[in-house]
Every structure is written in C-alpha cells, then in structure tokens.
Amino acid sequence: MNENLFAPFMTPVMVGIPITTLIIILPSILFPTPNRLINNRTISIQQWLTKLTSKQLMSAHSPKGQTWSLMLISLFLFIASTNLLGMLPHSFTPTTQLSMNVGMAIPLWAGTVFTGFRNKTKMSLAHLLPQGTPTFLIPMLVIIETISLFIQPVALAVRLTANITAGHLLMHLIGEATLALMNISLLTTLITFIILTLLTILEFAVALIQAYVFTLLVSLYLHDNT
Amino acid sequence: MMTHRDQGRDGGGTGRGQMCKFRAVGDQKAEIVAGPETDTQFHFTGIKKYFNSYTLTGRMNCVLATYRGIAWIVLYFKLRSKTTPAVKAT
C-alpha cells in the first residue's frame, strides 16, 4: 500500500534493460515533421505555438544571438514535452534527474560564456566588475561576480530538478494521504482531493513555466554575451 | 553638477549636438553623455587611466589584476619551503 517514495525517480528498466534513452527520445515523436505547405491541425497548432514562443524569446537578440534560435526552441520543446509527459501516472520524468539537467545546463551556459569571451573579450571581462565600484571593494566584488558566474549553470539545473521533483513528491504524498483518509473521514478526504486537484493543475503550469524559465535564462546569458 | 547644451561642437569625442553633463568621479571630471557609453567619456590620468571601475579597459584591467593577485598568492603558499621544526623529536 505504501509505495516507495523513490520509485518514480528510479531508472526505468524493462526486461532488465534500462530504457532511459528511449524515454528521453520519446517526446520527439510527438512533433512530426511538417511536410506539406498546409499541414494537418496538430502540426499547424504546434507550428503556431513554436512561432509564438520563438518570437517572444528571440526578438530582443542581435542577429548573432538569433543563430541560437533553433537550439533554444528545441530545448524549450524538449523540456516542456518531457515535463508534461511526466504528469502521466506511473511514468518516469527524465528532468527529475539532476544528471540530465546538469548535462543540459553546463554545455549551454559554457557555450554562451565562450561565445562572449571569443567575440567580446574586453566586455566579458569588464562585466565581472560592476561600474562605479569603490576602489577598496574591487577585489571582493570581482571574486563575488566570478562566483555568481559559475553558480549560474548549477542554479539552472537545480531549479528545474527541484521544481519537478518536489511537485511529483507532493502529488504522491497528498494522493497517499487522500487514500488513507478515505476510511477515516469522507469530508477530510474531499478536502484533500480538492487540494490534490489544484496541485495537479499547478504542476501542469509549473511543467511549462520551468521549461520557459530554463530557456529564457539561457537566452539571457546569450544576450549578455552577444 | 553643471549642464550645458553643446550644439554642433565636436570636442572630446562627445559627438554631435548631444546634451552633456559633468559629474565628479573622485578628483576627476567625467562627462556623461546620452547614448551608448564609451571609454572616451571619461578623462582619467595616471594609473587611474588603466585601473578604474568606470571604463571598460579599467574594469578589465582590475579584473585581470585581481586574478593575477590570487594566482600569485596561491603559488606563494604552494611553493614556499617548509621551515624546519624548532625542537626535534627524540
């Protein structure tokens, strides 16, 4: 009856074979390639949403930054679809794994930083010291800004992991509480069930918001460096 | 702070017909001009020309000097010879 709390976060295995790779690749089959001038309704809606998101994300970028459009939109679609598929009962959500999120965050962040250092070395170095800093505070602020620079990918990864993991855990716990209260008090069960419903709606929103926040932050780092 | 309109005079790299304001930056006078900031706005002399927290060059040099200082401190502690103990164990 009390299912292991760690079960939803363990690597899924089928007949002894880990199928994590298959699960990571799965969302891509939900986005078929448009192969006609006027596509079917599903693809048309996906195209419309993709255009809306890419305009929102990339309009403020320079032409150099806009070369990252495909990368960033793919990232957003991948994280959003993975998070939404994770809302299915008894499914495995790859974005609850810190290893995967760090694997996405560090290369993207490093790419933006190296782009900035390669194309605008002076400006990238100068950004490590805020303008107008008093002289005696300069060494301390340089160290603080350097640390905050290196914290960025860690924060990106941990934010996504923590939000999705916490949401899934909460749903699991409140669901178990609802079941346990059914034999004790129907009124309390009803209240708990309403809370669970509201939480599920919130988790759907969080799934999309976290995907957008991850992509937006990467695009902001890119904007600072291009 | 002193303000004046500078019509058509191209001096000090401020450009054409821009509103100029002066503000005190320590003991130096810095010209604030509307538009994108450039290093030519600030007229530092001496060591402040290369190490300040206002111009891009100054900020870059401060950052590099800080990193070099940290590297020197780390190298010093790594490479310094271990002193012999005052009392030998018997």
Automatic annotation (TrEMBL), chain A:
Keyword field: ATP synthesis, CF(0), Hydrogen ion transport, Ion transport, Membrane, Mitochondrion, Mitochondrion inner membrane, Transmembrane, Transmembrane helix, Transport
Subunit structure: Component of the ATP synthase complex composed at least of ATP5F1A/subunit alpha, ATP5F1B/subunit beta, ATP5MC1/subunit c (homooctomer), MT-ATP6/subunit a, MT-ATP8/subunit 8, ATP5ME/subunit e, ATP5MF/subunit f, ATP5MG/subunit g, ATP5MK/subunit k, ATP5MJ/subunit j, ATP5F1C/subunit gamma, ATP5F1D/subunit delta, ATP5F1E/subunit epsilon, ATP5PF/subunit F6, ATP5PB/subunit b, ATP5PD/subunit d, ATP5PO/subunit OSCP.
Cellular component aspect of the GO annotation: mitochondrial inner membrane; proton-transporting ATP synthase complex
Similarity comment: family membership: Belongs to the ATPase A chain family.
Compartmental location: Mitochondrion inner membrane
Gene of this entry: ATP6
InterPro entries: ATP_synth_F0_asu (IPR000568), ATP_synth_F0_asu_AS (IPR023011), ATP_synth_F0_asu_bact/mt (IPR045083), F0_ATP_A_sf (IPR035908)
Source organism per UniProt: Eubalaena glacialis (North Atlantic right whale)
Regions annotated as coiled coil: none
Protein name, UniProt field: ATP synthase subunit a
Ranges annotated as spanning the membrane: 12-31, 67-86, 137-158, 179-198, 204-222
